[in-house]
Design goal:
With about 110 residues, this protein is an alpha/beta fold. Helices cover about 40% and strands about 20% of the residues. α1 links the parallel β1 and β2.
Length: about 110
């Protein structure tokens, strides 16, 4: 599965997803660190990626749009990188299953 990690999340998340066998990039690697949400959205569509974000704007846009990209909305409070990855570990399988079956918005709380 291909992921695009948004700016509010650490680049380490993209590296962690890659280590788990996925293709993942952080927006900083794509030259999109300061890009608008629309530019990030369009890039995800072009490369066929699911956006991982903490930004509610992506979830709202997803609710109003048809088609790609899928959004994984991480609603955890602020956490250190290690804690974030620890919390995501048991959820990754269900996230990928949800996206594979066609869910377009996956909320993680």
């Amino acid at each position: 599965m291909r992921f695009l990690v948004d700016a509010q999340l650490p680049p380490a998340l993209a590296r962690w997803l890659t280590a788990k066998g996925h293709h993942a990039e952080h927006v900083v690697e794509c030259g999109l660190l300061t890009a608008s949400d629309s530019d990030v959205w369009d890039h995800a569509v072009r490369i066929g990626a699911t956006i991982l974000t903490k930004d509610e704007d992506f979830a709202n846009r997803r609710a109003l749009s048809q088609g790609p990209p899928p959004i994984v909305w991480i609603r955890f409070g602020n956490a250190r990188r290690t804690e974030l990855l620890h919390r995501l570990e048991p959820l990754l399988g269900s996230v990928t299953e949800a996206i594979e079956r066609g869910d377009t918005l996956v909320e993680l709380t």
